[in-house]
């Protein structure tokens, strides 16, 4: 385990996606750090929780219905966060974005990738909580047992249709999370 460092701020902003590319890479660049990600992707059968979050119907036996990607995000060489992402195979099967980290749109982030198949992500919802770190997470995040982690259950939507959901885990000993949102709404048209 590494020596305890000063806690840093990790910004999460809905408007990062408007800049294009990976929101994590943009945040690491803001911090003058190089963002890296280790990942593995596979087809999988969604769990009941993931099915609910993605609005999927019942499973078709053990037939895969999502692409599951597990990530370890690093800033320079330090672990920053873990994430597991699920995207419905019905949306992305046999498209150039089927695998999030491979192909011509690799690493671009959900919003940019979905645009490539003419799906416009309109918003995201995040459910934030905290819990004790799990044993596998202590090794991956390089934190001691008993540490607290922030958990974020994020879902991206194209209007009412969920297009991706993810579980994100961040060490609260290392990071405080800052959220930013817009207060600007598009004009509703002529009201007179």
From TrEMBL:
Coiled coil: none annotated. InterPro entries: Chorismate_lyase_/UTRA_dom_sf (IPR028978), UTRA (IPR011663). Gene3D superfamilies: Chorismate lyase-like. Residues 29-176 form the UbiC transcription regulator-associated domain. Pfam families: UTRA. GO terms for molecular function: DNA binding. One of its GO terms (biological process) is regulation of DNA-templated transcription. Transmembrane segments: none annotated. This is GntR family transcriptional regulator. It comes from Sphaerisporangium krabiense.
């Amino acid at each position: 385990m590494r020596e305890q460092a000063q806690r840093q701020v990790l910004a999460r902003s809905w408007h990062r996606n408007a800049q294009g590319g990976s929101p994590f890479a943009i945040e690491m660049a803001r911090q003058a750090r190089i963002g890296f990600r280790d990942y593995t992707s596979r087809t999988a059968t969604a769990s009941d929780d993931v099915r609910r979050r993605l609005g999927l119907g019942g499973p078709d036996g053990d037939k895969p219905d999502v692409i599951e990607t597990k990530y370890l995000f690093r800033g320079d060489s330090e672990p920053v966060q873990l994430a597991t992402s699920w995207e419905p195979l019905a949306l992305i099967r046999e498209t150039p974005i089927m695998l999030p980290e491979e192909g011509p749109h690799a690493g671009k982030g959900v919003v940019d990738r979905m645009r490539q198949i003419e799906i416009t992500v309109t918003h995201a919802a995040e459910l934030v909580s905290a819990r004790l770190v799990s044993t596998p997470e202590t090794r991956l995040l390089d934190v001691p047992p008993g540490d607290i982690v922030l958990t974020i259950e994020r879902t991206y939507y194209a209007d009412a249709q969920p297009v991706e959901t993810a579980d994100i885990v961040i060490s609260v000993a290392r990071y405080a999370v800052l959220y930013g949102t817009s207060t600007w709404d598009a004009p509703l048209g002529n009201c007179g």
